[in-house]
Amino acid sequence: MAEVSVVLSDAEVESRLESLAGWRREGETISRSFGIRYHGGVALIVHVADIERLIGHHADIDLRWDRVRFAITTHDAGNRLTAADFDLAERIDAIATAHGAEPL
Description:
The chain is an alpha+beta fold and 104 residues long.
């Protein structure tokens, strides 16, 4: 049987956001942008995608010439926020740091 994702309350979301500098809530999504040149952004995205494949959870990713934006929600939970979203956000932060991306 597949694991059911537990939707977080508004208070839980706000509490978790306090420990994730730079991430902000946009409805039922959390998002963050990083400054990085295009080819560096491609490398960053490939690294993130590799981790996403392993954990089975994916962000929506927008690549521009000088930045990358990640937006996360749990599709299997009706596009609501779950603990898995915050776990992925922490992983993205670590990967972005390793790639020298600048917080925006």
